[in-house]
Amino acid sequence: MVRLLNTLFLTLLSFSTVWAAPYEIIFSEKIGGAENYACVDPIVDAAAQHAGFIYCDQNNNRIIIDDFTRDSLITIDFSRTPAKTVHYYSPKRDTLYVYVLLNRDSETPSIGLVRIFPDGLLVERIPTNCFTAFGQLSAVESQNISLKRSSDGTVQGLWFETALLYDDSSPGMGSSSEIAPTTILYSADLKTEMMRAAVTKIRSGDVTGDITEEFFAFKNYVYSWNFPDAFGNSDIGQIKWTSLSFQDTLAANLGSQQTEQGISYALFTGDFSDLTPKKEIIYQGLSEDLLSMHSRLASHVACYGYDGGILTELWYTEIENARFEHVYADKRLLVGMLRDDHVVFLDYSNGDVVDSTYLGRKLSDVTFFETYSNPSVLNMVGRSGDTVLVYRFDINAPATQATASTSEPVPSSLVLYQNNPNPFNGETRLSFEIKQSQHATLKVYNILGQEVAVLAQGNFAPGTFFAYWDGTDSDGMPQSSGVYFARLQGDSESQIIKLIYVK
Predict the structure, then answer these.
(1) Of 493, 437, 497, which Cα lies nearest the Cα of 12?
(2) Looking at residue 42, what is its pLDDT?
(3) Distance between CA 129 and CA 27 in Å, rounded?
(4) How does DSSP classify residue 34?
(5) Three-state SS for 308?
(6) I need a labelling partner for 173 at 20 to 30 A (CA). Which of 262, 280, 295, 370 fits?
(7) Which residues contact 404 (CB under 8 A, 6 or more apart)?
(8) Do the beta carbons of residue 193 and residue 185 sit within 8 Å?
(9) Distance (Å, whole) CA 398 – CA 18
């Protein structure tokens, strides 16, 4: 059913590459010391509106929470340097949860958890137990934290990723260094380690159809050495390769793909193509491609399907100096930065770069985020020196090319309205309108696409009709909380809505 939903969406937006992406600056402010901010994290409230910022002040080892809604400015000090924050707001508890990635020279990173209540706050720091390689920890090559969410948006945990550089030096024997990656999935309260792997950039998806949750990640392996021989000569070299791995929640290895050289940058999973029945993987790197179909070392983005244990390339695009960071599903775009002063938009269904917007200045610490939940609006926050800016992008809907047979749009013969209430606990009402006499069915499906219940079925005359669903299947068995889909199918068309059932 997830595939059905997206297939319908892509069909409605079929186009011939006519785009425009102008922008407006909706926030610009010079902030003292902002040139030292390692991260500018936009606060998005429960109503999907931009409500402030969280700043990581590296010079003063603190974070600054500027909450527009509460008109408050909170400063929290740490003994380590804050490098990044991620957050979410719980309306049920009226609490803002802020996770802070902390580090110190030649030490493994740790995580701070800040909980801000209406009448106070609580700060904790959790050490991370990273994998270690042979030798002395020399530097943190990369580090990141991100929230793990369920399909209905509920926060399930925190991903922690790092790649640590270890040096090994022996008198008369030479020296070597190795970068060791680690990813850990912590529970939302950071008390429990739920998963661990020697990889980075973990993403979840459904490319194999396994009933357990699947994860996809890559490992960048870099090993350098300088070994002298008895004659004073040195053997200097480096091994560098990247691999993509697939595994499930039981840590069962489902497969892997390795390049002989190069480095990976980013990995995404989702419904990026209507050519496959399952989700796909989008990979970006300065490397050979994963299937060695394009054997040269090149900066590229490629989309792959993975079905029956077989990786299939769906499209491949070479693009220099770009880093893609955000999937904008409402316009089927992969969005990123080009040379720090352009925003670039790539159509993730075919790999075409459809637009690039010049910003007129170089930005650092860029984050893309969305507001206005229906429809969503793409925004970007970035820093230029000591100035923090927020951009809003007015991305036009793709235009359909006119043909000789094009005429006035055919009016819809049926309409399925959003259920009320939604989310719901107990019972929800669904209403639909039949505009032309026809046979129609209204069914509920779970997130796996399995039919759960038939709410209405038969020949309908024009009119408005109502149906009710109480969270049980056709046999009266209660269903679990989660996301479901209602589909109204007529003679020639169908419509779909999302239902959120909460016990």
Answers:
(1) 493
(2) 95
(3) 39
(4) G
(5) coil
(6) 262
(7) none
(8) yes
(9) 6
Q: Is 8 helix (H, G, I), strand (E, B) or coil?
A: helix
- The answer to whether residues 111 and 190 touch, using CB atoms and an 8 Å cutoff, is yes
**Sequence-distant (≥ 6) Cβ neighbours of residue 236 within 8 angstroms:** 225, 226
Six-digit token pair at 283? Answer: 């990979």
Q: How confident is the model at residue 2 (pLDDT cuts 50, 70, 90)?
A: very low
Strand positions, DSSP E, 359-418: 364-371, 377-384, 387-393, 414-416
- E strand or H helix at 4: helix 2-12
Residue of 337, 312, 301, 341 lying closest to 322 (CA atoms): 337
C-beta of residue 414 within 8 angstroms of C-beta of residue 382? no
Q: Is 291 helix (H, G, I), strand (E, B) or coil?
A: coil
Say if residue 65 is exposed, middle or buried (CB neighbours under 10 Å; 0-12, 13-18, 19+).
buried
Q: What CA–CA distance (Å, rounded) separates 282 from 284?
A: 7
pLDDT tens string 235-289? 888 888 888 877 766 555 666 777 767 888 889 988 898 777 778 889 999 888 8
Give the Cα separation of 339 and 342 in Å (integer): 6
**Band of residue 191 on the pLDDT scale cut at 50, 70, 90:** very high
CA–centroid distance for 24 within its chain: 24
pLDDT at 79: 93
Tokens for 124?
A: 């904790």
Tokens representing 443 are 């069914």
Rounded CA-CA distance 369/42 in Å is: 8
Coil, strand, or helix at residue 481?
coil
DSSP 3-state of 170: strand
Integer CA distances (angstroms), 79 to 32, 76, 103, 104, 138, in order: 22, 10, 9, 9, 20
CA 176/CA 170 separation, integer angstroms: 9
What are the backbone dihedrals phi and psi of residue 427, each rounded to the nearest 5 degrees, phi first? -145, 145
Phi, psi of 2 (to 5 degrees): -60, -45
Strands 414-416 and 428-434, by their bridges, are antiparallel
Q: Are 378 and 327 in contact (CB under 8 A)?
A: no
186 Cα distance to chain centroid: 17
In 150-233, at which residue ranges do the beta strands (DSSP E only) sit?
A: 155-170, 174-187, 193-197, 200-205, 214-228
Write down the residue that tokens 């669903």 correspond to: 469
Report the C-alpha gap between 193 and 331 in whole angstroms.
36
354-412 confidence digits (pLDDT tens): 888 889 899 999 999 999 877 889 999 999 999 999 999 988 754 333 333 333 445 67
Query: Distance between CA atoms of 380 and 28, rounded to whole angstroms?
Result: 12
Q: Among 248, 259, 315, which Cα is nearest to 286's?
A: 259
Q: Tell me, what amino acid is at 192?
A: T
